[in-house]
Amino acid sequence: MSVDQVIDSCITKAVENKIIPGAVAAVVNRDGLVSIRSHGVRSEATQRPMTEDTVFQIASMTKPITGAACMQAVERGLLELDQPASEICPWLGEVQVLEGFNESGPVLRSPNQPVTLRNLLTHTSGFTYEVWNSDMAAWKDHTGNPITGSGKLASLHQPLSFDPGTRWEYGIGIDWAGQLLEVATGMPLAAWMQKEIFDPLELVDTAYTCHPDMEERRAATHVLKEGNWTALESSKPKRQPEFDSGGGGLFSTATDYAKFIQMLLRDGELAGQQLLSPETISLMTSNNMNELRVSAVTSHNQKISADFEFMTGVPKSWGLTFQINETAVEQGRRKGSLSWAGLCNTHFWIDPTVGFGALLMTQTLPFMIPQVAELLEDFERAIYETVTP
Question: Based on the structure, what is the number of domains in the chain?
Answer without folding.
Answer: 1
